[in-house]
Amino acid sequence: MTFGTTVIADNKPSFLCKNQVITMNEYFDFLNADDIRIKGTRVGIETVLDDYLNAICPEEIAVRYPTLTLEQVYATITFYLHNRPKADRYLDRWRRYAEQAWQQQQQYPSPAIRRLRAIKEQRRTRGAAA
Fold first, then answer.
1. Which of 125, 127, 53 is CA-nearest to residue 88?
2. Of the candidates 52, 68, 118, 122, which lies 20 to 30 Å from 86 by C-alpha distance?
3. Which residue in 79, 19, 26 sits closest to 48, CA to CA?
4. Bridge partners (DSSP) listed for residue 35
5. What pLDDT is recorded for position 130?
6. Contacts of 102 (CB under 8 A, 6+ apart)
7. What angle do CA 48, 54, 55 make, to 5 degrees?
8. Where are the domains of the chain?
9. Residues of the chain below pLDDT 50
């Protein structure tokens, strides 16, 4: 995925922040078109942006995800605001993928989930019989 960003002399995508050019590579690892992670973490930008789009303030997002700094949260939000149309498409693809994965897990649960569901059902029927 190519985001509409400024390209500076070293050909790295960037955005401006208070008259300072910040390269996105300082904050993000672009693993592939559908996997952008916050550098130094396993957190995808979709995690932060989902909270942000649900009206969670940046400070609360940083508290929810202790591996992230407030600066990283703000960088992710800035990235989103600077690239909104393409970032929205990224988020739409991510949501569709997450929904498909959830549906598949519901349809074909792992053996561990099947065992837990069986235990839950046994407890429910024992409780109803008592």
1. 53
2. 68
3. 79
4. 32
5. 67
6. none
7. 95
8. 6-129
9. 1-11
